[in-house]
Amino acid sequence: MALAETDTDLTSAYQTFSELSNALQGSYRDLESQVARLKGELAAARRERVRQLEERARLSARLGQLMEALPGGVVELDSAKRVRAANPAAVELLGHDPIGREWSEAGAALAGASARGGEATLPNGRRLSVSTRALADGGAIVLLTDVTEAALLRQMVERHQRLATLG
Predict the structure, then answer these.
(1) How does DSSP classify residue 75?
(2) Strand (E) or helix (H) holding 133
(3) Closest CA to 74 of 102, 107, 46
């Protein structure tokens, strides 16, 4: 009887082992399919992220090109009023590269212009319109526009009007 009992126990153990082995194989296949699905989702998310980064890089490059091409000067100030960036037109109008300097020092020639905007005359005689706008991060954008010719034309018109009133 012991042999029949052992044989039954072995058969039962073998069936249990086979069932558990089949269940384990099924679980393994399920995990493999989940891993494959997650890999696909991760690859899609990665492709989307790369696409977004490339788009941002294109926009950044485009913005850089526009800043370089602007005829007016653009100066970006950080929250400590230190010059963070300036386009070539700003460098030309100021007569020096202001990046990294305090705006009070870099834009000293513009001291006559009000904080809300106005006109200032540079030592070389050029007249600039100065407009300042605050940024959300505490910094500011300063727009410098050369209005020398417009100021000269305005003076000429005023002079002609005075002469016309005299005549």
Answers:
(1) E
(2) strand 127-134
(3) 107
